[in-house]
Amino acid sequence: MLEDLDQIHRSALAEATSIPDETALEEFRVRYLGKKGSLTAAAARMKDLAPADRPLFGQKLNEVRAAITAALEDRSSALMAAKDAQAAQGIDPTLPARPLHRGSLHPLSQVLDRAVDTLRRMGFALAEGPEVETEWHCFDALNTPPDHPARKESDTYYFPNGKLLRTHTSSVQIRTMESASSVPVRIIAPGTAFRRDEIDETHSISFTQLEGLYVDRDVSLADLKGTLEAFFQVIFGAGTEIRFRPHFFPFTEPSFEIDVKLRTVGRAERWVEIAGCGLVDPAVFAAVTKCRKDDLFHPDLVTGFAFGMGVDRLAMIQYGIPDLRLFNENDVRFLRQFV
Fold this sequence. Notes:
Blueprint: H1 2-16, H2 22-33, H3 38-44, H4 54-88, H5 107-121, E1 125-126, E2 132-133, H6 135-138, E3 164-165, H7 170-179, E4 185-194, E5 206-216, H8 221-236, E6 242-249, E7 252-262, E8 270-280, H9 282-292, E9 303-310, H10 311-319, H11 332-335
Parallel strand pairs: 1-4
Antiparallel strand pairs: 2-3, 4-5, 5-9, 6-7, 7-8, 8-9
Helix pairs in contact: 1-4, 2-4, 5-10, 7-9
C-alpha cells in the first residue's frame, strides 16, 4: 500500500505543473484531495493493515497530502500571476495618474468639531445619551410642566410604548447627574435632536444640538457669561458682539437668549439669536436628588449653569448659508465649497 501512495504522489506532482486554468485546478483538487479522491480512498484502506504497519502508513499519507496541497497552492499562485500579467498588457505605466478629488468633512461636522474642541479646552468633558428617551429624562426632570406645548404629539415624536425621540440633548445632562459620583460636573452633550417641524429654510425634523452643563458649589451667572462670551469669540472671531436677553426656559432661572451681531458685506448689521442659557433651576436639582436618593445635587448645596445651541445655526451663520436644507441634500457642488 505504500507503493500506492508513492504512485499517487508521483502522478499528482507531475500533473500539477501542467494544470491550464482554475477549472482544471479545482478538478485536480477534488480528484486527489476531495471526499472521493485518491488520498481519501487510500486512507480508508488503513483499517486493513496490521496494527504495526499503520503508523508508517499514516505518516506517509500525511507527507503525500502535504506535498499535493503545496503543489496545488503553487500552481494556483502561478495561474493568478499569469492572469494579472495578461490583464496588465497594454497599460502604459508612464501615463500620469488620474487626479484624486480631495474630500472633506461635512460642514456641520467641521463646525461641531471646532465647537467641541473649544469647549474641551475650557474644561468640559464629552457626554452621550440615547436618542430614544423617556418623558422623565426629556421633560419631567427638566421641570417641564405636563401642559407645555413641547410635550404635545404635534411637537414631539412619541412611540407606542410611551418613549419618544429626544427633543434636545438636555436629557444627557440629567443622565450625567444621575450617574455622577462627585462634583464638579462639567460636560457637553453634542447629538441629534428631533421635533415635528415644517421643513423650510430654517426648520427641520432633526438637527444637531450642542448642550453644556456645569455644576459645582458656587457657580454664578458671571461664570456662565464669561464661558459663553469666550466660546463665541473663538467660533466667530475676536471682536464679535454678543448680547444676553432675558427669556424663559423651564429648566433654568434666570434664563437668557444669546444673540450675535452679524456684519455681512452688502447688508445692514443685524442681531441673530444663536443659543439659550441660564442658571440651572433648583427644581431640576430637586428632581435629580429625589431620583438619586442622596444629597450630592441637593439644590441647597450646588448651583450650576446650562446652555444649548443648534450647530446647524452656527454653521449657517459662520458660512453665510441661507437654507438649512442644503446640509441634508448631499449636493457635491455645495459640499465642495468646504474642502
